[in-house]
């Protein structure tokens, strides 16, 4: 199965032209669907997969720590709010070429990593698939010495929409600046669309509205990710307004493209300043344990054969490995049901008050966090039916 990248004006990495053999597979899948149908039970072909789990994909939004650290240093609440908005918008440009989606995590799968910052501080991240029906991922990122916590739940809902496939990004992320009396920002996500799956060029777009809200200071940013019209518009456009929510007063306006450069300005003025420029930005990747030291249900080890097949362009290997992972999940589910057991997440627990999964962590220091996420002893042995390869390495490696 083959595919070609094709340039799209404004962003050459968001489009893909499928060869006839690849497109015919998609058409075979679509023939079984009806408009608006949930896609969770449909096995997508491996050539449309990005070779990493959604649990790892979430870390893209932690790739520009300088922005959130700068925001945390501002004494003016509006400046902090603008900094948090800038930080949120900075993560969307990180993506593979073409139209790809990350692996759907299986129940109990988890991903963990850390960052070492230039100022001598650290951040640690843990994410876990806490529910299968409906699919839900819980995640927690903290850098105690920098006064920062990010946690949330993600509930993607894929749907078929005729010539498009959509992923409705339900869920909320909470960014807490602990130095400012736990000042918290509640963030929702835009939706993701794959256009042109029946005819035309396949294009990935972000669409619809989302918000960044800080109830403590009364600020809200209303963002609108624009999809390109058939005859008008451009790819990857985003516009927004920062308001004082109690009065409705507009304080700042945002414009530009999330894949290139975004600008901010005061209302009723033509003078704009750069809010975030992809070209001059620097990505700080996480540090991840080698697969030989990972547990069986850690993302990179769990999906390693699928990833190997995709990277070697061996779609038979990738497809067989993907089916093996999915069948293993079904077997685990049957075993729990036969024994009358209920799945309990390892790192997160459901908070009945707000219906969100929260970290089970006891204590708020870096030492507490490291011990919780990276215990000194854990089982990395292979089970008798182990089918996943062990890629040897001896040190934590960069993504």
TrEMBL record:
<protein>
    <recommendedName>
        <fullName>Oxysterol-binding protein</fullName>
    </recommendedName>
</protein>
<dbReference type="GO" id="GO:0016020">
    <property type="term" value="C:membrane"/>
</dbReference>
<dbReference type="InterPro" id="IPR000648">
    <property type="entry name" value="Oxysterol-bd"/>
</dbReference>
<dbReference type="GO" id="GO:0005829">
    <property type="term" value="C:cytosol"/>
</dbReference>
<feature type="region of interest" description="Disordered">
    <location>
        <begin position="379"/>
        <end position="399"/>
    </location>
</feature>
<comment type="similarity">
    <text>Belongs to the OSBP family.</text>
</comment>
<dbReference type="InterPro" id="IPR018494">
    <property type="entry name" value="Oxysterol-bd_CS"/>
</dbReference>
<dbReference type="GO" id="GO:0032934">
    <property type="term" value="F:sterol binding"/>
</dbReference>
<dbReference type="Pfam" id="PF01237">
    <property type="entry name" value="Oxysterol_BP"/>
</dbReference>
<dbReference type="InterPro" id="IPR037239">
    <property type="entry name" value="OSBP_sf"/>
</dbReference>
